[in-house]
Amino acid sequence: MAADGRWTELSKALLQPLNASAAVELLRPLEALGDQALEAKQFNDASNSYMAAQFCATLQVQSKPYSDPDSPAAQTAMYRIGEKLRTTAERFAEESQDTRTVTAEPRAGQKAPSPHAAVKTIARPIRDKPPSDDMESLIGRIAAFAREGKRGMWWPLVATPKIRSSKPQAAKRFEVLGDESRDRGEWFPAGELYAVALGALGPVAKTDMDWFVTLREKAVAMTNKVVDQRIANPLPAGAPLPEPLDWDNGWERVEWLVLSGRFGEADELIPRLEQIPDRYQDRGWDWLFRFSVLPDHLIEDHPEMARWFYERLYLAAWAMPADTASEGQIRDREMDEAQNKVEKTSARIPSRVATIDAVLSSNGMGPRPEPERYVKTVGDEQVLELVPERSLFTTQSAEDGASEPIPERQLPRYALHVRIQGNEVRLTPRADKYGMVRPLSFSTSRQFIRLEPDKPAVIEYDVPGGGPVWTLTLMEIRRRD
């Protein structure tokens, strides 16, 4: 299908569940087809090939969450192919020059050429032309998307030849629009318009580097204004999610939840976003910038919020493309720096402990024994161990039918990393002292448990025949003595 240019059919075929696994094998060949087409200056074929390869990478990312150890290769491919799409647009813009036709003046004694005679063609770049009506319309569309925070909508338009061939002009227009929004006190639209200006200016020429730095500073200032505004105006409880949910409005909601101190809700929304295709291909690079700016602004007065963003900075650095040894060293350095920031920020957060009521019972058919109650007190960043200690699930039948103790190593235990954030506790499975990680459930893919005051949460070992059930209730959070 790709060789015949049947791109729509290929996309539809890949969406079929039975064919989705082929995305892994097709990604590299499709990318290679794009490389060959770009080399041959067949820009349309190159663009279609790269977009199909990126679609395959997106399918892989959708099937594996960002926390999955096999996910980085697909994420790296998305960034790499996104850059190749940008290069294709730039190469096309370079080749596409405005031409004007000039009729050659007749020499003395010659007849004037007929209207159908050959004309002399002079190539002239369109870079210095004033913006056309079409350009004005395009800039207006991009600006409208930017004001609403729809990066997935304006990013492909900024990568079009019309914008790429007029980079300084377009970037200046968006900067002016950003300045106008800033002067009206519209912090969010201003920051988004500066982001468009930065996108239009890239890749940055040496002569534009000072300008790029100025745009960055303006974007940072607007980001900080938005952060302060949202901390002062927390997201109302029960506010519905945007519809339809996408990466742009979804991630904006995630950040607002964090800035409202509702970390658990933010953490729960991220896996939902991971199931949605992301049209903004520069998001990974944008996160490296954003997850540095936000926590740097928050660390003095809101270290808990800052830690959350620094942890996302670590994950964004981990997902950086590293096709060469030099890029790998850069990625490692970014990860180390992010980890250091997490540790330094954690040290600024007052030490707290949580008291958790843990009730062990059983599921399954037939009579059930009485539940057993345990009260656990555990500190932030420590490990909560849930293991039967009395009669429930501590014995088994021996070969002779008698009852015998279950070996310590085989007891159904959970080791859960404790994160106290706001007025909640997040519990995430970790390896126990024997190196085993027990899932929170066999029927769901929960990655963590949120404990809110007076809202019980259940961990169910749902295997045939029944198993242990832990019901956890957060009783209190207090400062460590």
Compressed to H and E, one letter per element, the order equals: HHHHEEHHHHHHHHHHHEEEEEEEEEE
Structural class: alpha+beta
Widest β-sheet, arrangement of strands: 4-3-12-11
Shape, principal axes of CA atoms: globular
Rg from alpha-carbon coordinates: 29 Å
The number of helices is 15
Tell me the total number of β-strands.
12
> What is the helical fraction, as a range of percent?
40-55%
The N- and C-terminal alpha carbons lie at a distance of 68 Å
Q: What ranges have pLDDT less than 50 throughout 5 or more consecutive residues?
A: 97-129
Largest sheet: 4 strands, antiparallel
**Rounded average pLDDT:** 83
**Could you tell me the strand content as a percent range?**
5-15%
